[in-house]
Each structure stands twice: as C-alpha cells, then as structure tokens.
Amino acid sequence: MRYDDIIILDCKENMNKGKTYTYFSSLPEMLNDTDRPYPPYHYVMKTDDDTYFRLDNLVESLKPLPREDLYYGYVIPCRSMDPFVHYMSGMGYMISWDIVEWIRESPIPKNHLEGPEDKVFGDWIREGHRAKNRYNAKWSMYNFPEPPTQCTHELWPDTIAVHLLKNQEKWIQTLTYFNVTSNLKPSKLYHIP
Questions:
Q1: What confidence score (pLDDT) does residue 6 get?
Q2: What is the value of pTM for the model shown?
C-alpha cells in the first residue's frame, strides 16, 4: 500500500481454479489510464514465489524481442526447446500487453478456467491463435540444481531465473552465488550465514 505496487486479487487463493485468469484479466482496468502513455506496460509477468529473478538479465534478454504478441518463458516439457509445442513453465512467463487485453476480452479464457494453470494458459494461447512471437529462455531459466532432473543445471552467471527455491537453504545458496547479500549491512533483524 505504501508504494502502490502490490495487487490483491478479488478471488479466493487457488492454484487451478482461475487465479491466473483473474490476475491477467484485471490488469487492463487497473492499469489503463487516459492520463498515461499507452500501453501502460509492454510486458506483464506471472511468476511463482519460489523463483528468484535476476532483473538485469531479464531486461537484457527482452531488448531484441518484439513488444507485441509475445509469450516468453521456459518451455515445458523439460526436453523440449520448441516454444510452439506446449506451454511455458509456471516458474515465470511473460506476455505482451496486447495478449493481456485479449485475455480480458476473449471468451476463450473465460470459458476455460479450471485445470493446471500454466497448461490452461498455454491452451488459451493455442486456441486463440495468439503469441506468434515466442521466446524460450531455457537454459537461462531453470530449476534449482538439486535434486538433479532434466529441468536443472548448476547455477551460472547468465541466469535469468532459478525456480524451486522451496527452503531457506536453497534461497541462501542462490543469493550467495549471485552475490546478492554481500553488501547487506549487519542487522539484528535478520541472520545470513
């Protein structure tokens, strides 16, 4: 509330019953303002709270990409490199503003709200013939290295996002690797080993 940078959705907390639709479809009404430039944002992102994003690397990766009809993220399944086959992982995906507005207006998302949220989102895009511009940020976006799977690799400098930071130790290891905490002043309010 202090910085006017948090959105509280008008829906019950849920994973697979329409929260993603509520989020994206609410944005045009909240953010379109006749007193400000249009579009209010070029891109909008949905991300999980167990994902660490390196925003400078994310911004750099977006510079050469189009600002319309874009769907950006880590394509699922893990072995796939083709962003047109399935959908982007829920660790974090970004869409251009025109797709946000389409979600609000189209009957396709409104009529298909339930199911695994990221897969359902991919279904909307496919059924609506949207996202002609797709960008697979694999392997700059990946799952935490442990336990090793087809979706993981070691932490590395060109990282955009690390997902599945499910406990404090994984957060500490990730933030330490990227030197995020090295300049923090000591405080009685937190402990960083």
A1: 79
A2: 0.91
